[in-house]
Amino acid sequence: MPIGSKKWLIPDMFWPEHTSPGVCVSHEAICLLNLGESDCSADITLYFEDREPMKLRQEHCGARRTRHIRLDRALGEDGEHIPRGTGYAALVECSVPVVVQYTRVDTTQAANSLMTTMAYPAE
């Protein structure tokens, strides 16, 4: 039996508008863990309170590999960046079962913070 799910939800995401004062950059990441024997294609759609959804460029994670997707570097299908300073959510749809984790690093203050959580399996 494969480990993981093909569909995942991350309801609380946020990339701060303010820049980081130090060397570490505020960012978010979606981590895919593919324990299976087949490569994974992942489609990520972002949902906002005040604008239409944004579909990111397709990501890939090899068989028996992990892939860390830095959202501050991610681009939409039209080449646009994720907007800063606004809350959003994500739907991660994968071609094979994987495990998904979300991490947020906030370095906008002297007391940096890190938050991580497992995504919600939607099937």
Q: What does this entry look like structurally?
A:
The chain is mainly beta. The chain has one domain (5-121): Sandwich (Hypothetical Protein Tm1070, Chain: A), CATH 2.60.290. It has no helices and 9 strands. It has strands at 5-14, 27-34, 40-48, 54-55, 59-61, 65-70, 87-106, 113-118, 120-121. Strands 1, 2, 3, 4, 5, 6, 7, 8 and 9 form a 9-stranded antiparallel beta sheet that branches. The protein is globular and about 45 Å long. The two termini are 15 Å apart. The relative contact order is 0.38.
Summarize the structure.
The protein is mainly beta.
Low-confidence segments? none
CATH level 3 topology:
Hypothetical Protein Tm1070, Chain: A
> What structural class is derived from the secondary structure elements?
mainly beta
Tell me about the biggest sheet?
9 strands, antiparallel
Tally of alpha and pi helices: 0
CATH architecture: Sandwich
Strand/helix succession: EEEEEEEEE
Mean pLDDT figure:
88
Strand percentage: over 45%
Estimated helix fraction: under 10%
Radius of gyration: 15 Å
As an assembly, this protein is: single chain
Shape: globular
Query: How many domains make up the 3D coordinates?
Result: 1
